[in-house]
Fold each of these.
Amino acid sequence: MGWLLVLPVLAVLAVLVVYPLVLGFWLSLRSVHFASGTADTFVGLKNYLNVLGSAESRSALVHTMGYVAVAVVLEIVFGTLIALVLDRGFRGRGVLFAILILPWALPGIVGGLLWMRILNPDNGLLNSLLYQLHLIDHYQVWFSSPVASIVLIAIVHVWGVLPLIALIILSGLQSVPEELHAAAAVDGAGAIAQFRYVTLPLIRPAMAVALTIGTVAALGIFDEIYILNGTALGTRSIQTQIYLTTFGQLDFGRGTAMAFLLALVTILFSIAYLRGLRRQTV
């Protein structure tokens, strides 16, 4: 009876998840290059080796790791601060909570368009504000260097993902018994000591979930890059390179191989976080 009840769900998963994965992996083992007009042939791991040996792929990987580093650090730090603020009862908490949810509710393209208006080098709101405050003497081209571009794009990405990270950490904070804080206060522990020795160890599972989600989201960054800086070589992520390879060059075999390598990197990050959490909790 149990198998009969779950059979419809298994069938849906098989059609929508398993079959596309198997078909995609088979595609990654073949030479499917519509632009060149060559025949569809089996090439084994050649696509994967070409991806690993490509200078463009390695550059995209470095950029993606930059996005991940900036985004995850900012999301965890500011997500924890926001969660600590929302964990306390105060007037207007509901309004602040609703404002916090708004960036997360907006599609990535919409958020990118909003920030493109803010960061526009000719008439952007940020340039205008800084100029009127006499903090700059001329309008800045914010995406003039690869490093600055990666940091700015990562900040825009954080703006959209931060609400979710803060909510995850907030759920962990709300599961901490208040009696533990009271006992620590009686023992003479201050606010910082309570957070370090009481709160932080108990919210590590929530932190692990937040780290995993933040890292997966940063590894898959695409919308913000495409809207703010197009397909510029200095800011391409792995997802951008997958898009250009698959739909720009029409090399579906190599693009699919790149997508599976990205999935492998994502899985490795998730396993590392889970193993780290298990080691700390045992």
Note: The two ends are 37 Å apart (CA to CA).
Amino acid sequence: METPHAIDQIFSYFAVVHDPRRQHPTTLHPLEAIITMTILATICGAHNWVEIEQWGHAHHPWLAEFLDLQHGIPSHDTFGRVFALLDPMRLQQAFTAWMSALADLAEDVIALDGKTIRRSLERADGKGAIHVVSAWASTNELVLAQFKVDDKSNEITALPELLAMLNLHGSVVTIDAMGCQVEIARQIIDQGGAYVLSLKENQPGLHRDCAELFTWLRGPHPLDEEVVLGYDAQVDGGHGRIETRKVWSTEALEGLGTCQRWPGLATLVMVEATRQIGDQESLERRYYISSLPGTTDNDAKRLNGMIRTHWEIENRVHWVLDVAMGEDTNRTRKGESAQNLALIRKLALNLLRRETSVPAGIAAKQKRAGWDHSYLLKILAQT
């Protein structure tokens, strides 16, 4: 049988991944077969090496039509050993190439955020759980790249590395307060992007000036004094909760010395969120800095949408990885295996989400793919 085109795609993208094993007569299973089966099994809902091996046995006759399986299906130990040795940067290179073929990032919002894979810690070796920072393109609904750090406190060191992997031209990058750093802003501008960065007390001077500026701008003014503020408001409700979000934006930064050192900084933003549950009401004010315009109501509306979009990475990536793909309970931890398998899960999630002919959630699509080889190949053929 001729190799399906969708499988050929896997071969072409992952050809850059070198086999880390010493070539020896006891090396029975080609790297191509191991990577391909891992991707296919993960798409079909396998969570770990044992399940990937079992999926391989269940589909052996079909897989043997296009993979070199003369020595049978690799054992779960073989899958684990190989992925523990694979170079994560080579795997990332293959992943990024595939996602670049899927994405048109012009005017997309790219959210950067981190997630700890909780069961990846190795107490015997004194290794903590790995923390992975990912880039999510909202319009394209794709995870674009990931970068591993030792723990959440080192997330800031991963952001420049992750940004360097991305084509930011024409897109807007959103990051929480940890990424609100002068050098991060400079890198985004230098790479052709724009930014919306959450501002908290880790930048005390700028945070104070921002809060004081909005207090003054929203206060009483003489009739002959013009105050230019963009404004937007949205009300959401559900499950007994009502949330009102009011957003103000301004480019009136003259005289604020703390703004001068920020490359591209054009606008300060204040979000006032009021949440009402029954008789209880709470109010929270948050601040942001941006290189985008902020003088009109349309500007404020656009900024409001981008700020809300940032949190899609929590709901549409991290939550799905945990609930549908079992990431938070996955005990893969040897060598580079936790990081590498996390990337395969993101690849599977991207492809499952891009396939829209079946109107179902991720978990249902995984089951359908496991039952129907033609649908599995359709999921792969998204380029």
Note: The CA atoms of residues 180 and 305 lie 19 Å apart.
